[in-house]
Input
Amino acid sequence: MRRLRLIVITEGLWALALYRFGQYVYREAPGPLLVMLCVPYEIAGKIMP
Output
């Protein structure tokens, strides 16, 4: 449980996950999926410092 808490609160891990998600969205996502995932990615990018 302690390790899970550490993973959840580590900002660097979330930044890396968001970066990789964005790379998938803009490089590999098919057209309809790109449209659906682009908005949440942009919102998450605005929230993360």
